[in-house]
Structure formats: structure tokens, C-alpha cells
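Exercise: predict the fold of this chain.
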Amino acid sequence: MGYGRGVSNGAVGVSLAIKGFYAGVMGWPSSHENDMGVDKWSDKTTTVVHIGYQIPIVKNLRFIPVIGYAKIAYGTTDGSDYTISDSGIVHNKFSEKKVFRG
């Protein structure tokens, strides 16, 4: 995926290890996904998925090689292009302009 200046974004996620298998999922929606204003915002999103398997080294130490996918998308959240869910939550459209993935 590489690294570059200004290519950063946080994410929140969960991971699970069961019977030697590991899986992790993380993400962060656009900051203005649910805003009520009719405006356009410069925004970004994050998606990360990893899977792996634990290899025991000694009883209390394990090595976990993982493979995965990560994506950071920069773009625009448009408050004038939205949908409303059955529960009444507004979901504004996010249009990607620049994407880093790998």
C-alpha cells in the first residue's frame, strides 16, 4: 500500500482468534455521513480486513502471519444527495476522488 504525506485516517474495529484462526475488521465512515445539512464536505473513509493463522513458538508466544486488504478513500460527502433509512437516519452519498488501497 505504501505511505505518503497526508495519507492517514483512523479506524475502529474488532478482531477474533478462535482455534488458531485470526480475523480482524476495521473501518471508519465519512465524518459527515449522517449530517442533516445540505452542503458538500471534503471527507475520507477507511476499510481494513485481515485474516491469519496462529503458529505456536512456545506455550505463551505465537506468531500470526496475516494477509489483508486496506483502503483509504478521499472524496466528497454530498448532503443534497441522500437516502433516509426506515429508522429515520440520513445517509449522505460519498463520492471517492482519490483512493489508496492494497
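Check your answer against the key: The CA atoms of residues 21 and 53 lie 4 Å apart.
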